[in-house]
Amino acid sequence: MGRRINFIVLTVLVFICLLSGAEYQLIDNAPEIDTGDTAWMIVASAFVLLMTPGLAFFYGGMVSKKSVISTMLQSFVALGVISVLWVIIGFSLAFGDSLYGIIGNPFTYFAFNNVTVSPNPEFSATIPFLLFALFQLKFAIITPALITGSFAERIRFRSYILFMVLFSLFIYSPLAHMTWHPDGLLRNWGVLDFAGGTVVHMSAGIAALAGAIYLGKRKERIEKPANIPYVILGTGLLWFGWFGFNAGSALGANEDAVIAFANTNLASAASMITWIFLDRFQNRKMSSLGACIGAIVGLVAITPAAGFVTIGQSIFIGFVAAIVSNFAIRLNKKSEMDDTLDVFPSHGVGGIVGMILTGILAKDVGLIYGETTTFFYHVLALIIVAAYTFVGSYVLYKITDMLLSMRVREDQEYRGLDISQHGENIEN
After folding, report:
1. What is the rounded CA–CA span in Å between residue 276 and residue 289?
2. Which tens digit of pLDDT belongs to each residue from 68-120?
3. Residue 131 forms part of a structural domain
4. Which of its termini does the chain have fewer beta carbons within 10 Å around, N or C?
5. What residues are paired with 418 via a beta bridge?
């Protein structure tokens, strides 16, 4: 019965898109399209899309050999599920006409109606509005994929798909609206999030924490990574894609994009070398896994600040984030909580560090410039986002579990998710 329902739902969604009547027309008297900005944003969007397959390799290499394919597919399938969901209603919830500064009107851009190829000055004055919507889609895709590392090796695949849909509708879209919509609550408070420190990384990290708590520990905790070269490859793809993630958030080929590009590279570099030197200082090996995790933590931390700080400050952000997340991972390993791939210590903690340091260092409005308002609202936003995401995600896990049991059976977990969920294994 469940298999039939899945197909019926998909068929209905396809026909909604077909019958929506959305057309990509030009609007009379609209601002002129800048071809340079448009070219860069097409490339940046492709860069960000590549991050999700990169994440699949990054996570897939770190789990046990019994669940490599399942873990990678949990990231990869988001490309399909969220793309369709975004067109139908996700984009409208995130960027539709504001309802109290918290959520968008679901009918403003339902099924991409009113999403034209002319620029929309409210969001992007020099590129087609359709391109803006597609760029934002890539952020919506990777956010639920990031969460999967926390409950890897023990979740049913179709249950995860349902949770991903619910998370995107009820957690991601409101946060994107509040932070990036011109009438969003947090944006009007002056909260600065250049490319997704709050919307993407904090939300994913805290949802991951809720998931690790809700689903409980694995029956068999195998800490030996299946394929370190996969992790290195995934890190390289993520680092590459992150230039589109951060520099693309300037929404044009301009000086802000260049600043974000430089800061992205330097923060990651600083975090990577800080991580491996700190490991050696603590009498541990300077491992390739440590270097990769350090690089990702630096990328996470610089994301909210990428367009607002100097090169030196970006290096400092990478340095601080590496130290804090390194210790957070050590504490996580000693705790009873089973966050399989340390998503909360990496993305949650890294995002929190980035947001706090943005409030301190942001040019002209940060705490070091004698301004207290931005810092105050950043701290307030962190508390609100953390509470909303944790409680909301926990409720969504509970709802999903009631509709479709989330944990695989014990025998399926021992066999591994590759075989039990997909009938495949890494040796095929």
Report:
1. 9
2. 999 999 999 999 999 999 999 999 999 999 999 999 999 999 999 999 999 99
3. yes
4. N
5. none
Angle at the Cα of 25 (from 21 to 26), degrees rounded to 5? Answer: 155
H or E, element range at 428: none
The verdict on residue 419 lying in a domain is: no
List 120's β-bridge partners, or say none: 124
CA angle 38–43–46, rounded 5-degree value: 130
Residue 130: DSSP 8-state: H
Q: Which residues contact 278 (CB under 8 A, 6 or more apart)?
A: 322, 323, 326
User: Which residue has 């990702």 as its token pair?
Assistant: 296
How far is CA 193 from its chain centroid? 13
Domain that holds residue 76: 9-179+189-414
pTM exceeds cut of 0.85: yes
Residue 278 to residues 256, 290, 367: CA-CA distances in angstroms?
32, 10, 28
Residues 64 and 145: beta-carbon distance below 8 Å: no
Query: Which residues are registered as beta bridge partners of 407?
Result: 155
